[in-house]
Amino acid sequence: MLIFEHSRPGRRNYSQAPTTAASNNKIPENLRRKSPPLLPEVSEMDTVRHYTRLSQKNFSIDTEFYPLGSCTMKYNPRACNSLAMLPQYLGRHPLAPEDTGQGYMACMYELQEILKDVTGMAGVSLTPMAGAQGELIGVMMIRAYHESRGDFSRTEIIVPDAAHGTNPATAVMCGFKVVEIATDKTGNVDMAALKAAVGPQTAGLMLTNPSTLGVFEENVSEMSRVVHEAGGLLYYDGANLNAVLGKVKPGDMGFDVIHINLHKTFSTPHGGGGPGSAPVGVAERLLPYMPIPIVTHEDGKYRWVSEKEKPQSIGRLSAHMGNAGVLLRAYIYVRLLGMDGMHRVAEFATLNANYLMAELRKAGFEIAYPTRRASHEFIVTMKEIKDKTGVTAMNLAKRLLDKGYHAPTTYFPMLVPECLLIEPAESESKETLDAFVIAMKEILTEIEEQPDMVKDAPHTMPLRKLDDVKAARELDLSWKKPSS
Amino acid sequence: MPFIPHTEEDIAEMLASIGADSIETLFDEIPSDLISGELTGVPPGLSEMEITRLMMERANIDGSYQNFIGAGAYEHHIPAAVWQITTRGEFYSSYTPYQAEASQGTLQLLYEYQTMMASLTGMDVSNASMYDGATALAEAALMAVRLHRTSRRILIPKTVHPTYRKVVRAIVSNQKIEVVELPFCPQSGQVLPESLDEFYKEDFAALVIPQPNFFGVLEQVDALTDWAHSKNALAIGVVNPTALALLSPPGEWGSNGADIAVGEGQPLGIPLSSGGPYFGFMACKNKLLRQIPGRIIGRTNDLDNKPGFVLTLQAREQHIRRSKATSNICTNQGLMVTAATIYMSLLGPEGLRRVAAQSHANTLELIEQLEAINGVKRTFSGPIFHEATLTLPASVDTVLSKLKDQGILAGLNLNEYYSDMENALLVCATETKTSADLQRYTELLTQALK
User: Fold this and answer.
1) pLDDT band at residue A22, thresholds of 50, 70 and 90?
2) What are the chain A neighbours of B89 within 8 Å (beta carbons)?
3) Any residues with CB less than 8 A from the CB of A361 and at least 6 apart, and which?
4) In DSSP terms, which residues pair with B206 in a beta bridge?
5) For residue A315, what are the domain limits?
6) DSSP B152-169
7) Residue A367's CATH number
8) Pick from A131, A169, A348: which is nearest to B6 by CB?
9) CA nearest A332 in B: which residue?
10) Which residues of chain B lie closer than 8 angstroms to A27, CB-CB?
11) A248 to B278: CB separation less than 8 angstroms, yes or no
12) Residues A248, A109 within the same domain
């Protein structure tokens, strides 16, 4: 039932809105709204019940194991939320004077410094509001760098075929042509293809490392050399930073610019698909182009870096300070972890992934890159199973829901057929991983004994399989009031 | 170990299963020269008690002020239920609803949100949100150019939020799209539709129409919309969602309505929070549906014909179309939209109207009182919604500083944004202010000007 279907004309919540209806209205007649908007007329209790019940129809980290590959669904500590929601932080206006925000700005400044150290970059700007925006900002800086040197011939961005879709989409949004390069049999970028692709037209290379195939690019230093020698810059997509946090610094791998998905590696909530936050880090030569706002610290005071101080900045990419409240949560998380905790993130994320990979292999699943170590994630391919039984990766994913597990990422990366990208994250215990393996084994048996049942999954969710084709063909994107 | 549950025994058993002798071994594919040393820039970990103390100390340094600044972020009362429900783990810690059957909560909520926003803006369809108001406007400009095909020019009046203009310029210039800024009437504070023909003669893809504009003034939206359409361009409304409870929605502007409506969703239940996270909303006419960026939720049926919800029209999106996508946007601002949907449900049409009407009335009352002070006058003659520009007989910074010492953030110095506007103060009094608050503001400003 939709909230609109609970609605009754004239029902109101008297305590939540102004109790008297203001009569002083000086809005010209021709600019006034003629009919009220379609908002529900429901009681507070109806609203609370309706949305509480809706929430219960979601899988979430707080309720289920959520091994969604390349999304780093780790536990979101409660303290990060409750402390970021202290009334003074919530109440502060973004344009309030600097001297009324010294506490908040201290947190932002320290977060910038910590992220610099973790990534090995020379500067950090906290403004990007999501991974894709971090990418856009990063590629814009690459462009600004070349153009400031009078080099307008660099029109191409190189992207490996295993990259997230946001990489090529970002390059195009930035006005670049995308050159896709292949992956070799062991999961590394094909070096011969890369060498053939670079040239005076190369603006840069966007790389995720470890890649979305769940393996570390072993030739990363060589790639860095090849691209830099051609005059291009290296972009690090931080989607998988959790795999190397505290182990390897992207700056040491030769990257010139990086974005860090705080909603992955720094445990800020995914919130049903946002808000994210993706600070960008840059090497020395890109410092002049960083987007503002940036916090600086002088004479014992924090202040915003002004536009005049950054004449070559690519400018502003958000109305205010990016996703300020998300940044606070990430700050609290890094302070809770501290130096030692930070080193352990990659270690235990990697331990969990390699353990789960070993156990699933023993259970009879085919690993896409069996000769490689898993990073913080790995790929199971269902190709052989599908060829034999007709059961697909998506069928298995839906059957996992029945067993109380969120599905891994399916059909991404696209170059591995029938793939499941599995990322357990460091906050999961061995018991949880073991129980997941048992569920996967059960499904394997079910595939043999009753494949049609698996193909029709899910069976125990509030709804059975949903019709995507109907959704796209007979578009119904908003509720219409029935004409009574 | 913070947030890592492994016991020594677990670690030993797991390594044995893998066949590795230590955790270090698991990193043996990483060239050893890349392994970094200690993170010397990260301080030692704090306990929850210690971080609580630190964050409370810092919150107290910032203190609490009575706020009369608007300028794109507005203080409104947020009902207690909004964030109690929004921060339930099932909303807070779930991801983009890729597995529809395990995400019906988020999906249905987003469908309800789309319905509310489409109606509030008077448009056919709404997407599931953008990052913020400024980036939503930039994406609207890109949409308009994709649809127009021949012109790569966007007209934006200088009455649009100055930061929005900067953001739009930064984003669209990547695609060689030109932003042309339109002047406003220094008396009324509005863009004058009758002056546009003279000012601008070339082709353009869209005209941006703010309502209310950055000065708090209401624009002549009907004439502006019709003018854009007469030039074969789109009309993009950038609107305040609270104001839409009182004001004619973009879909009804002029003879045929504006084509795209965008804006900052923050006033709908999102705390000011130093500037984010907020959310941008975007709604449009059906003809633009295939050009709209971001997530869209559709209603469909399951195998048993029971209604349910899925992500739809994904062929526009980056994870399917890659370099041919309508935008690189991946996530929306899901949790913010959750709060906004609950906010709109709790208030309903009458509640939201009252919030808007009281904010309007409070600002009128404050302005009337302030105009009575010697030397203070309204900068612009145009009608306002809940924000106004005043010209003071003294330096705005001095006045702001004096009122700050009394615990009041009295508004925004417009000189920072418009170098030719001296002594201009932008002030906003929402429904959160009482008559006593307004009187105190007036008294303190009177004293500050003595």
Assistant:
1) confident
2) 60-63
3) A367, A370
4) B154, B234
5) 79-336
6) -EEEEETTS-HHHHHHHH
7) 3.90.1150.10
8) A348
9) B51
10) 218, 246-247, 360, 383, 385
11) no
12) yes
**A252 and A394 co-located in one domain:** no
**Contact between B30 and A270 using a beta-carbon 8 Å cutoff:** no
Who contacts B40 (Cβ-Cβ below 8 Å, separation ≥6)?
Answer: A117, A339
- Spatial contact of A21 and B359, defined as CB atoms under 8 Å apart: no
pLDDT tens digits for range A111-164: 999 999 999 999 999 999 999 999 999 999 999 999 999 999 999 999 999 999
pLDDT above 80: residue B224: yes
Closest CA to B332 of A54, A440, A129: A129
Given A312, A336, A360, which residue is the final one in a domain? A336
Give how many domains chain A has, as a whole number.
2
Of B81, B101, B248, the CB nearest to A48: B81
Count other Cβ atoms within 10 Å, centred on residue A14.
Answer: 8
Q: B188: distance to nearest CA of chain A, Å?
A: 14
Burial A168-186 (b: 16+ CB within 10 A, else e): bbbbbbbbbebbbbebeee
Domain boundary (A336, A366, A399) is at A336
A280 and A347 in a single domain? The answer is no
Residue by residue, what is the 3-state secondary structure of B248-295?
Answer: CCHHHCCCCCCCEEEEECCCCCCCCHHHCCCCEEEEECHHHHHHCCCC
The CA distance from B135 to B166, in Å, is 10
| pTM (predicted TM-score) | 0.97
Beta carbons within 8 Å of B185's beta carbon, 6+ residues apart = B191, B192, B195
Mean pLDDT of B352-361: 98
Q: Do A104 and B62 touch (CB under 8 A)?
A: yes
Residue A165: which CATH number? Answer: 3.40.640.10
**Do residue A445 and residue A463 come from a single domain?**
yes
**With 80 as the cut, is the pLDDT of residue B199 above it?**
no
User: Which secondary structure element, helix H or strand E, spans residue A233, and what is its range?
Assistant: strand A233-237
Q: What is the pLDDT of residues A387-408, one digit of tens each?
A: 999 999 999 999 999 999 999 9
| pLDDT exceeds 70 at position A92 | yes
Query: If DSSP codes are grouped into helix, strand and coil, which group holds residue A304?
Result: strand
- The partner residue sitting opposite B30, judged by closest CB among A34, A52, A248, is A248
Rounded CA-CA distance A313/A230 in Å is: 25
The Cα–Cα gap between B358 and A325 comes to 28
Q: What is the per-residue pLDDT across B385-411, written as a single tens digit (0 to 9) for each?
A: 999 999 999 999 999 999 999 999 999
Alpha-carbon distance B232 to nearest alpha carbon in chain A (angstroms): 24
| Residue A484 confidence class, pLDDT cut points 50, 70, 90 | low
A330 shares its domain with A348:
no
Residue A247 shares a structural domain with residue A286: yes
**CB neighbour list of residue B258: distance below 8 Å, 6 or more residues apart:** B209, B221, B225, B234, B235, B236, B237, B250, B251
Q: Is the pLDDT of residue A464 over 90?
A: yes
Domains of chain B: 66-76+349-448 (3.90.1150.10), 80-341 (3.40.640.10)
Mean pLDDT (chain B) is 96
- Closest alpha carbon to B52 in A108, A102, A266, A82: A82
How many A/B residue pairs have CB atoms within 8 Å?
Answer: 680
Q: Is residue A482 part of a domain?
A: no
* Chain B residues inside the 8 Å CB shell of A17: 347, 350-352, 354-355
Beta bridge partners of B113: none
How confident is the model at residue B388, as a pLDDT? Answer: 98
pLDDT tens by residue, B78-136: 999 999 999 999 999 999 999 999 999 999 999 999 999 999 999 999 999 999 999 99
Sign of CA dihedral A466, A469, A474, A479: positive
B428: β partners: B387
Distance from the Cα of B374 to chain A's closest Cα (Å) equals 24
- Both tokens of A340, joined, read 């030692």
Cβ–Cβ < 8 Å for B39, A338: no
